[in-house]
Amino acid sequence: MYLTHFGLQEPPFRITPHPAFFYAGANRGATLDALLYAVTSGEGIVKVVGEVGSGKTMLCRMLIDRLGGRVDIVYLANPSYARDEILFAIADELQLDIAGLRQGAVMRLLQDNLIERYANNRQVVVLIDEAHAMPPESLEEIRLLSNLESGHHKLLQLVLFGQPELDATLAQNSMRQLRERIVHAFELEPLRRADVGQYLQFRLRAAGYKGPENFAPAAVRLLADASEGLTRRINILADKALLAAFADNTYQIEARHVQRAIDDSQFGSRHPVWRKAAWLLASALGCLALGWLGGMWMASRHPAAPVPAPVSSASKAVPDSRYVVQAPAAKLSPPVLETKAGAASGLKDEQWLSQVDAAHFTIQLLLAPASKPAALDEFVEQAARLVPRDQLHVYRAVRQGTGYVGVVYGEFADRRAASQALAALPAPLQVNRPIFRTFAGIRKEIQSP
């Protein structure tokens, strides 16, 4: 809307990561160089910690771009993987044929494949996003995967991206062995007030702006204080401030324009309670805003195709006993959503989960805060236009004292059918990086305290 007014070629403050808009100041560039060295040295686990909106996703994207064709990348973006699902997820990302295999066989197949890649001078790097929200047993599986070696070389380079809660988790005595495997640790600090003005001008120039500095010093100070130096907040406020200046038909962004942007936003101060639920807000509202409006950078590689029909409750295919996952039946309570008339409230819930075969698979489309029913309903409405509504289901679980709701699609008799259905999902459902999961894993997640 304001692009022509300010002489811009593209929006300067989009929150979707774009390499051309990577700001190397405020130690960001140096951190990227050090991270690149740490990953390519391949000596152990690497950890990157930063607040919500501090730029971890952009750093991850830049790391992938800088690694280029030298490595094979596995990106795990969903923190809800159960311990026995992580191994299958990595093998699937590496396009290994694991249909019908049990966990031990998959581990052997993965190790043989990694040795072959290493012999061909290929390194495999696993990037794990939202690591702070992973269950402790899943983090323990990460530690075991770091044991895969060939001679004196690690076969898997593991990088954990997470919020400060990850450090708290690793500080627990039960995490001692994993903590000792971390050989490089990086922290993304918020931008200082002096950096914010430079950041704003860099983004404007990258978007094609050629005029004089147009954020008044008072506007920069107000924006820096309100954003607390977090780049995502800076982008949101700066974008709204530009729009306010455009509405006033002026080229100078004053403090009053920033104040309008602040009034139109609902940022709270950073504190432990806010941090505790931040990964939920990012996975739900972030996925909705970025996915539906433009797509995330890790969009699916597969073309759209007819979605294989999930098995019906009346005629379920009998899964091969080789890959039956044993899980005790549980009497589960339906979720308590804050909306009674919303779209999500009309979906089947955990009562349905207790009746399906534990060895069967489903596709997880979304994790959303239980306290954000409007966002959940919006996603369900969008999804119901693309896949049959009667195949969309919800479940509720609690992690670290915070409740969230999962939206899953379909029931599939085996991993191959689930994988085919995942690849054939309509493009708008692909951009959030859905994953397939076993019902046994979801039941275990629901039962966890």
Task: Report a brief summary of the structure.
The protein is of the alpha/beta class.
Can you give keywords for this protein?
single chain; 449 residues; Helicase, Ruva Protein, domain 3; Alpha-Beta Plaits; 5-stranded parallel beta sheet; 11 strands; 42% helix; globular
Structural class: alpha/beta
The CATH class assignment of the largest domain is: Alpha Beta
Topology, number of strands: 11
Low-confidence stretches: 271-307, 312-341
Mean pLDDT: 80
- Terminal Cα span: 48 Å
The CATH homologous superfamily of the largest domain is termed: P-loop containing nucleotide triphosphate hydrolases
Backbone shape? globular
What count of helical segments does DSSP give?
19
Give, in order, the helices and strands: HHEHEHHEHEEEHHEHHHHHHHEHEEHHEH
Q: In what order do the strands lie side by side in the largest sheet?
A: 2-3-6-1-7
Proportion of strand residues: 15-25%
- Helix fraction bin: 40-55%
In CATH, the topology of the largest domain is named Rossmann fold
CATH architecture of the largest domain: 3-Layer(aba) Sandwich
Largest sheet: 5 strands, parallel
Characterization of the model:
The protein has 449 residues and is an alpha/beta fold. It has 3 domains: 90 residues, Helicase, Ruva Protein, domain 3 (Orthogonal Bundle), CATH 1.10.8.60; 162 residues, Rossmann fold (3-Layer(aba) Sandwich), CATH 3.40.50.300; 146 residues, Alpha-Beta Plaits. 42% of the residues lie in helices and 15% in strands. It is built from 19 helices and 11 strands. The strands form 3 sheets. The protein has a 5-stranded parallel beta sheet, sandwiched between helices. A 4-stranded antiparallel beta sheet has the order 9-10-8-11. The chain has a two-stranded antiparallel ribbon with strand order 4-5. Strand 4 and strand 5 form a beta hairpin. Helix 10 runs parallel beside helix 12. The radius of gyration is 23 Å and the shape is globular. It starts with a helix and ends with a helix. About 15% of the residues have low confidence.
